[in-house]
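Fold this complex.
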Amino acid sequence: MSLLAFEPITSPTIEYGTLSPMLLVFGAAIAGVLVEAFTPRYLRKSLQMPITLLSLIGAFALTVWQGTQGVREAAAMGAVAVDGPSLFIWGAILLLAIVSVLLVNDDDHFVAQASAVPGSAEEDQALSQGGAHTEIYPLVLFAVGGMMLFPASNDLLIMFVALEVMSLPLYLLCGLARRRRLLSQEAAMKYFLLGAFSSAFFLYGTALLYGFAGSVDLGAIEQMIGTHLGQDNLLYIGIAMLGVGLLFKIGAAPFQAWKPDVYQGSPTPITALMASGTLIAAFGALLRVFWVALGNLDEMWQPVFWAVAILTMVIGAILAITQTDIKRMLAYSSIAHTGFLLVAVVATGSLKQNAAALGGILFYLVAYGFATVGAFAVVTMVRDAGGEAGHLSRWAGLGKRSPALAGIFALFLLAFAGIPLTSGFFGKYAVFAPAVAGGATGLVIVGVVTSAMAAFFYVRVIVLMFFSDPAPEGPTIAVPSMGTAAVVALSAAATVVLGVFPQPVLDLAHSAAQSLFVR
Amino acid sequence: MPWLSILMGVPVVGALAVAAVPKGNAKLAKQLTLAVSLVVLALTLAMASQFDPSGARQQFSEVHQWIPSFGVHYAVAVDGIALVLIALAVVLVPIVVLASWHDAERSDAKRSVKTYFALILVLEAMMIGVFAATDVFLFYVFFEAMLIPMYFMIGSYGGAQRSYAAVKFLLYSLFGGLLMLVAVIALYHVAAKGTFLQPELIGAVTDPATQKWLFLGFFIAFAVKAPLWPFHTWLPDAAAQAPAGAAVLLVGVLDKVGTYGMLRFCLELFPDAAKFFTPVIIALSVIGIVYGAVVAIGQTDMKRLIAYTSISHFGFITMGVFALTADAGSGATLYMVNHGFSTGALFLLAGFLINRRGSQYIADYGGVQKVAPVLAGTFLVAGLSSLSLPGLSTFVSEFLVLIGTFERYVVPGVIALAGMVLAAVYILWMYQRMMGGPTAESVRGMPDLNLREKIVIAPLIALLIGFGFFPKPLLDVINPAVKHTLTSVQAPQFTPAIPAAADQKGPGE
Amino acid sequence: MTLLLANPANPADPVGPTLADFGKDPLWISIIKALFIFVFLMMGVLFGVWTERKLISRMQHRYGPNRAGKFGLLQSVADGIKMGLKEDILPRTVDKVIYILAPIIIAVPAFLSFSVIPFGPMVSMFGVRTPLQLTDLPVAVLVVLAMASIGVYGIVLAGWGSRSPYAVLGGLRSTAQVISYEIAMGLSFVAVFIFAGTLSTSEIVAAQAEGRSFALLGLDIPLPSWYAVLLIPSFLIYVITMLGETNRVPFDLPEGEGELVGGFHTEYSSSLKFAMFMLAEYVNVFTVSALSITLFLGGWRAPWPISLWDGANVGWWPMLWFFIKLVLLFAFFIWVRASLPRIRYDQLMAFGWKVLIPLNLAWILLVASFRALQVPQGQRNLAMVIAAVVVVGCLAIYFWFDTVNQRRREARAEEVQAEFEQLSTEPTAGGFPVPALDLPHYHGVNGRKEVPSGTN
Amino acid sequence: MTTHYLVLSALLFAIGGVGVLVRRNAIVVFMCVELMLNACNLAFVTFARQHGNLEGQVIAFFVMIVAAAEVVVGLAIIVTIFRTRRSASVDDANLLKY
Amino acid sequence: MELYVPIVVLAVLAAGFAVFSVGIAPFTGPKRWNRAKLDAYECGIEPTPQPVGGGRFPLKYMITAMLFIVFDIEIIFLYPWAVAFDDLGVFGLVEMVLFIVTVLVAYAYVWRRRGLDWD
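Structure:
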């Protein structure tokens, strides 16, 4: 005890420059809290909005700059790895966050007074005052910061902390929908309880790995596995629990149960943020853990991932068919896409092979992220008396009422289905090709079969929108605010451009993937 | 001069222009579409005139990097086979446009007219692209992307069951396509050439087992596309529900992509596997021939009937393709073209009838030839071409196919002959039920073909008869290409077709 | 300078035990020490009660207990016996287990905190050389805090278990109060640890053995040895929090007779269970006093004039100094009780949260940055800048609040003034000779901004 | 001897996990989650002891914070839900979906 | 570990005493049953029945508890820093300033949202 206590402590160092994008985001979040504290209500939104957007844009600029500088280092005493994949993921997350924030900025998504009981007098009063929680902006910033730290963290402790920093704000944001507040609150609670549960698993796994390796540093764990000494049961149980935590976050079966409920319940802008940003971040973390720390052990976890990937794809594709709520359906489709991504995770092998797979995954994430954000943006525009028109039957004949909107939505759906000349197609190709090269042809076949199934329910929505006659007193199409319009346009553009000229982004992804993960 | 790019570009631009036409002004949209399609036709003819049958196999070829990191090129070129099919497409399009002048309005639900015609043009561009692509990946892209416009044409402008038919059509093709995607990826990986250029991939896959798997991957996709029994079930629905024009393009051109793909990819890339599977495929096609014919006889709906006839015809085509003899090969290719014309004519005429009578059930007609002789006459000619009466173009092709097949497989040839007999039954019986006999009340006062419809149908009849007597120009173009293909099939697997690959290097000549 | 930064256990005096000296006792020595502490505390409580009553009545010109025994010395013994002989009431409504458990939970930790309090230097006890301290840990002070927190469970469970509104509310209140002040208390230690560089009580005492010198701009400024003087703000804050922590006047809200009857022990109307609460309260008083002696008042070391005598800090003498300091502090408690009124609950909380904590944090930063000035390899300028920033920032915030409150007060005054005038213009409010309902002394005059209490 | 602690922590973790799965009351479920986190802490400290490095103990600190943050967020959410449920709510129908 | 043995000893002693005195209390005193005596004390009025677990109480206390947790955690981090201050030097100071400022921001937010006021 005492001999522990008196080890000489050398003061550590932190590379603030390298971490600047994250620091900027977090700083802006704290500034946002200050704004909340010290500015009058009527000023807040007009202050928060620029703070949020500018900080995100600035962080993106910094990330790009670092990318051009070729920064590849493990900052903060090797706790945070700022390498190619991290930078790429940061860029992607920041872009998608900017887009989502434009959605968040749109009025009438968020509750006026979270503490007011639904349907109570005080809620009506809060509504009539037109108040809204501007705390949402700092919360979003915190979440984004967590998303950035999560895939970049190079040791399991930081990863855990980042996981929570990412999740906790999202738990809250889920519960802040203005319409259907009970759903929203239930979603928040489910997300919270399940999320906490899974993160506990992650933590215990971390503990066991620490017990195995005597360190939570990914590189150290890898070396220890390389020189494999004793306590293997610790190692295996630890890996299993770690896997549970991570697979939960990406929403892979059998840990996908939360996704539909949460996606449906939470405010659509937040759903967009989760469906894009969280997925990307979680995938980055998953890859880092399983490729860096457990890279020497792939013959052990690959079979499991085979099973998980197949299960995820099948469950996602099949259950999606039975859905009647558009957001729920998109949630299941996101599960299916998680499965497709997992196909490439399995395809490890030579360094070159890994790089190819990683590049494919990164590209897929970007392509899918934009498509999904756009899709949810469209969902926010199809309004009803009670808010968004969730039920599919309400979407019937949308193609006649507003062809443009329906057309764009159809475009996103086709991208999900992976039809050529949309981003989704090259995304699928980018993950399937390395998978075949990596000897996972069986998985790929399951993948294409399930994506055919998935295509069915995407097509069904298109049929509904275009081929069936509009429902009487159908939903009204909200005149999009500048933000929403921009989001939809941007996402559609991204989907098409990535579908026709994916080369630049592919180059970027592959160059980012070249130097795999720094140890 | 980048002929093919222009050929693809013009319709796309035209489509955008048509889509940009103000909403009310449907007439302008139609005229614009017609003009564009005619321009494309003219360009194609101009290009064809420059095509040198005895020259290099691939002509007008363009190769540009598209996605280097996937080894994907924008590579287009035509050989004889592709050329005639492209010609088929561009000939049919203006006819279809003219034929379905009022279809868009007449379809029960009010849809925007210009969209329909814009879709036709987009489809034309893609049809040209799919035949011209010499990069496997590019081919796949067109192959899949083609579905979407056709899907919308059927789904929004078709008959009562349209959305069901459309979804069925899309999912069948998509499923096949995705299997093909796996094969494409695997091909790229196994060949390890780092490129998708079809000529360079020839002979790249040597391992027999791998060849067989990849072959299956491609073949199933094509079999679904060119409805080969037992993958055909989507065709009757789609064809029956689609508006006449769309049906013509669907059966006349789109399905040819399947047979074309078999000829171009299955045979050239996986010769040994092709040889290995030939018996099975021949069997399937024979079954298709007979099955299609028999079921056709039982049909009460003329569009479905025509659809089933073409299933039978596609049986002939696949049989010709996989007979692996020069005659059968060129016969099959020729058949693709002629079948396009004859079935097209049949569908269009059926469409005219339906527009007049408002029903596609054979039972609702009778004695039409008294009230509308021209209509009945053209219908007869088209029908006869469908049962390949000597003197009509289809006869030549079917004859060649049978000759070629008999060289190798006698029994299937004999059974196929039975198919011809059955063809006579269903066509003539349909004609007799609809056109002959006493004039039914319902068709009394049915107007005969008006000028537009005459203009539509005339060129088809002309082509049918013309090529019936003088198929040489087509055959001249087709034969060398087919021979070339077959040589690559006969080529022993150890020596990849180096000369073939060699003289196609570099863009065009 | 380097010596200054060396391990605080001071080589200059051999008797001062360090962590290394602990954990060597044989078990029987430990038992003896433990027994001693136990007896010491029991006696302390008995006579503490007596002293309190006697002293406070003297301050109020009364005699206080003077019947039982000489000067009523046996008074509290009598009370104890009385409690033992009274009927032990177990109300029907209570949650039996918790109700009975609570007094035990509250009493035991109170004793335990004393185990890390140093009474004196190394002595030889029955030939065994051992420090006059039950034990010491690298985290000794944390033990004290932990025990205090466990005591809180006793309070809240007592309130909770005896299912009566008064008890529940009292329990909650005193819990809230205790934890609020615990934060301020914990923060007030930080400065001490920065200087002592350890959490072990014995070494903290050793660190206060003799004053060091603080080198600024070359010249050495001698610093006083006791942290009470060196870190006077911390000490003052600690003294306040120690009153709050032990629920003593002026912070004895839990048993505010006026509002909550007996607070959390309302239902413990009599008997030894109640005695446990009494016991715990007094033991806690001793604990916090002893802690303040250890952390701030030089521990068992003799104060200045005595310390000139060499034998002062050797052998058993230091226990005497410790005891004297303890008594004086206890007397201080009583003095406070005699002189201060009880403050309102919201004011109590506001004071704890809005004054003590920010002050503490600012002070910590200040101390830290001044301390950082002495780190040889560190860049002093940066430290100075930080110090300056902290000072300026604190002043700025202070003045900001001051002006804000100033403005509020003025606005309020103007309102009142305006109302007076408005009334004076219309003497008979609304024509009737009745006092106007909106006279300023009535509450709820509309349009009047209510000032949240605690914002002085 | 540290194995005893490991067994204990495993037990605590298991108890917490089972609790989460079988209990219905949100607060209780939540407490079980916290119990799991504390089990992790115990494991960390034990391993730190085993390996003779301080890392594990430091990690325990961080876990404490995270746990605290989770408590704050979680109780906020749960309390909101409870308040909602006590009240007559307009759109109970939506609950049938879950 | 042996550092803790004496504490255990003292604990045993204290616990023994407490349990003993609480334990014998029922036997030393007289027993005179009286209904009113066994009621919860509410100034003589009929006691209001309390639900198990004391029922609901003001949210205010929960908020206080939350704040307590937050600041207690802060203290947890302050102590090691303070002890190792001389080793960490200016780096530690800077980090701690950042940390404390961050906490203070949250603190200011709570304050402004009247989270620290008692009605």
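Residues 380-425 of chain C form the longest helix (46 residues).
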